[in-house]
Amino acid sequence: MRFTHVKFGCFLACVILSLTWYNSYNGHGEGEPPHHPEIVHLYERLLAVETRGELVSRELTSVLVNLRNLTRLRINNTSSNIPGLLKRNLSLFSSRLPNTYLYLPHLRDNPDGLIPHVVVGQGRTGVSLVLGIPTVKRQKQSYLVSTLNSLLFDLSPSERNDTVIIVFVAETDIEQVNSVGALIKKNFPKDVHSGLLEVVSPSHDFYPNFSRLRETFGDSKERVRWRTKQNLDYSFLMLYAQAKGTYYVQLEDDIVAKPGYSQAMKTYVRSLASDDWMFLEFSQLGFIGKMFRTRDLPMIAEFFLMFHRDKPIDWLLDHILWVKACNPEKDVNDCNKQKGLLKLRYKPSLFQHVGLHSSLPGKLQKLKDKDFGKAPLFTAHSNPPAELSSSLEHYQQHTLERAYRGEDFFWGLAPVAGDFIRFNFPEPCKATGYRFRSGNLETNGDRFYNTTVEVLPSDGSVRDVLVGGQSPQYKGSHDGFIVIGSFVDGLAEGEIHTHIQPISAMRLLVHSNSDVWVLLSEIFIKV
């Protein structure tokens, strides 16, 4: 590679010397470009090649640095992760936005500033939906875990396999970045392992010096710095997400999602008669719930970078529409009409802003999306006749009976080991499946932990066959019950195999004391 660069450099030097000789021969002064048309054309091409060569050289240097770093990594268990790590650590901007150094000139001396730091991720690609969530350290309250719980609340297995949620930690403090990664690993281990959740942060050298920003629109220095950094954060996140799926949805770290949001968005996109839209709005607030095609993200990010010092992100997005749609010779009404063809609004809104304290210190964000409505707090089902009993004391009117009939959710005081909820069937029934969901959008922390789902076969000999023997298929519980499942991330869901049928009862059995109350927002026994 070095030999190739030397040969090209010698060639370029020879051509430049020839041009210098030609200029001197024709009476041109030193440094003055030649006037012959063909020579002028060649001269300009050489200057362009030289400029591009410098950029490519920087990119190659960055790649080589990362290759050297990757070879030093000690990878546990297997070395097969090296290609994936390499792909994730190469520069995002230099390959997708060749003009990056024009908008962020400080990176010319810090090419590593364009390399994302993947804290958590399995490199999942090829999905339909990519959800981007920027987050920063807040002085008051963090909403991130609640936001992720809301987004994951009722995703089906197929939707989980067709989605990537990227949490972009817009901080350069490595301790803060790692703490967010640890928090997500602790709360969502299954989704981290599957590749559904990723945590990414920028390089320490990515951000420019914010002390030289010009104050505009009467904003304070702190607000100008905040909105400028926010523009860079969105741009970085968009470019990281661009290669991962078909559609990108911009979210924030303090929102609530309506149940069924994933399927609603996909259905809406498929229903559109025209493919000319630039983005779709699933919330009317700011930059929340905006969906883009990932193929358009480089263009959008470049526009944001070009004017990142000048205006807030939602204003810049509107300016893109103006550039694309509006005729300067026509009035504002025509402009708004044309812009309306490029941004389409879905109602009712699928995302609601819930955070009170903004990431800008001292700012309170009280805006609410009026089109969001009231999110359902429980899911109703038609269940088989059963006699209900529980050792848990219910709160106010949120009884187990009302929840079982699909009229409300069940809300009980903090359980202790041995507490139970039991469903006795007057006639043995052939239940083929079950789903018990704990917590809801408003009280998502009140979940069942360390709790099993158990069934009581009507034929006692069935239990002896399935639980006893040298290779038991199931684990037995007391009172003749068989353990068939347990709560994971607040959800217990599964099938009941035919060789257990019919059953006389089902129960939820708590195995350890809990510090929180419990809430059942869905009870479904499928027959």
From TrEMBL:
Residues 97-372 form the MGAT4 conserved region domain. Residues 1-31 form the signal peptide. GO terms for biological process: protein N-linked glycosylation. The keyword Iron-sulfur does not apply. GO terms for cellular component: endoplasmic reticulum; endoplasmic reticulum-Golgi intermediate compartment; Golgi stack. Residues 386-522 form the MGAT4 A/B/C C-terminal domain. Transmembrane segments: none annotated. It comes from the Eukaryota. One of its GO terms (molecular function) is acetylglucosaminyltransferase activity. Pfam families: MGAT4_cons, MGAT4A_C. Keywords: Glycosyltransferase, Signal, Transferase. Pathway: Protein modification; protein glycosylation. This is Alpha-1,3-mannosyl-glycoprotein 4-beta-N-acetylglucosaminyltransferase B.
